[in-house]
Amino acid sequence: xxxxxxxxxxxxxxxxxxxxRSEAVxxxxxxxxxxLFGFALVKILSQLGTATYGKYALIMTIVSLLxxxxxxxxxxxxxxxxxxxxxKNGSGSYLRLLYAFLINSTILLLVLIVxxxxxxSLISENLNTxxxxxxxxxxxxxxxxxxxxNQLNLIRERKTNAVLILIERSLLIxxxxxxxxxxxxxxxxxxxxxxxSAMIFGLIKILVFKNLNEVNETKITEEDTxxxxxxxxxxxxxxxxxxxxxxxxxxxxxxxxxxxxxxxxVGIYAVMISLANAFIAIPSTFMGxxxxxxxxxxxxxxxxxxxxxxxxxxxxxxxxxxVLLMIIASITTYFFSMQIxxxxxxxxxxLFDYLLPILCVGTGFFYTGQAMTxxxxxxxxxxxxIIPKILAGLLAIxxxxxxxxxxxxxGIAYSILLVGIxxxxxxxxxxxxxxxxxxxxxxx
Length: 444
Fold this sequence. Notes:
This protein has 15 helices and no strands.
């Protein structure tokens, strides 16, 4: 195993020029800044009280929903076919499609914000018109900024992206801290500051992306543009299905807690699950981004038995890494859950600190299953995972409703644990089916 890890590092270093290594440094620097910013933001906003932080957590579920069913799938499609346009000297067509998506999605969200601002109070007394408008603009600009970040990463402007993120995050934390220390910070003010920052830096990133793409239309035809447009849509659709199921599993529970318990319970849970994600989800995602290209390369020639076996060993390394993260996080939080929660929030959030290790185990099981799906992706069988993902989403809703009513907030931890176990089992079964259909018996 150690030798395989050394092989991965050697592969990465050997294939990168000094410029590419510099890009990698800037990329991970930006990720590290975002990682620290996440903790700082939790620390600041959690001081507003459990109920207020619960409202913020519910808003972030809407951000996540838009990521999973709209912006995320679109990004997958635009990223996948960006170089198809460039190769055919069609950057102008690409930009027109990209901006058409941004404009249309922005108009759609603005219409939804206006409509919801008049009906929000009918759903909950907390959803008054002013709050809905502010929250809506926050969500819109948050996604605009995220989209701009992705586009700069796409064209490998890692340094530019990292510098903009560092400036943006520093400015944001400074302003939020100033309002907090002056005892004038409210959720509305925090959202306005966040939305303004996101809008400014999102537009800057998109303009930088536009200026760095030379418009050239000497070869591409209207038919080519329409064909690739349809291809982008078709390619993105499965991600919308996965995203819907994934949102039910990873974010729907907050609304169930809100309905059966209280917004304060949402806030307490949100702080704990953010810790579980920081310990497991974030590093496992980084590991996946690093290993996936290597895995895909080894599975590129289905006739090369040795290469496929190497690819399998890299998948195993990925899975083992996630399991180790889960074990370390679970043991650490078992002994120090109260201190860790208090460190990033306040004593108001430690009432259910004993649930944090369970949340880490459940989260670890889920991301172990995610690592296992790399096999099907490498074998070009992503659609095979639609049923397991939908099943996980439906089970999450079912378990959450039943167990939260039976046990209160601890029920959500038990639900996440059960869903994680069932997800691993379903992915294991699916992988066995994929191998039987794709590879000769005994190859893996």
